[in-house]
Structures are given as C-alpha cells and as structure tokens.
Amino acid sequence: MKNFIITLVFAVFSLLMPATASAENASLTINNRSGYTLTVKVMKVSGGLFQTVTISPNSSRTIYFGASGAFYCKTKAERWGETLYKKGGSFSVQCDSFGYTQGSLDFFVSSGYGSSGSSISKAEFEKNN
Q: Which pTM value belongs to this model?
C-alpha cells in the first residue's frame, strides 16, 4: 500500500494598509493541488473551531478573518475509499488598523517522505476544540 502524505506549504504576506483598513481584508486562500477532496478545519490556537471548508480536487477556497489571531489547520483528504488525516503547524493572522494578512495554503498529496504536519486520528480530526 502506498504511503500518501499531505504536504502543507504556507505563505503569508502582511500588507500594510492605512488605519481605515477593513477587517474583511484578512484572508487565507486554500489551494487543493491534489486529486483528493479535502475537508479543512481552521482551528484557533486558543481553542475552538474557526471555520470548516470542503474543497474539491484541484480547486481553491478563500476564507476571511475579522480579527487578528493564531490558527492551525486539521485536514481530511478523501479519495476512492482512502482517508488521510493531518494537523499542520500554527500561523498568525493580522487584521487591525496597522494592516492585514493575505495568505495562501497549498495542499499536496504525494507518496514518499518529506511531509510537513503530523498524522492524526479520525477522532482527533473530529474534535472541535
């Protein structure tokens, strides 16, 4: 059986905007660069679910933030009866009068070594705290 690994690549660009910057400007675009259907839970590091999105193979979704904070993602990748679970590292979002974050998160599924993030169980993925 192949060992599939979800590789997470995170890039954040903080853009300085005037003090009138809208809170709606902070965003994270999640790019699914695989043939798997992804369910991504964006979790608050301080505890709790922020948002859940489902992303079709080879497509993208953008989520928006109304306040600064620290977050991480839990991911479920499904295809042809195979399900993979991963937990990624934390990232920060800035959304205040000094500026906002525009970030992207790319998901790849590949065989072999070199993944980022750690494997988690289905039970851990389903927890929202």
A: 0.79
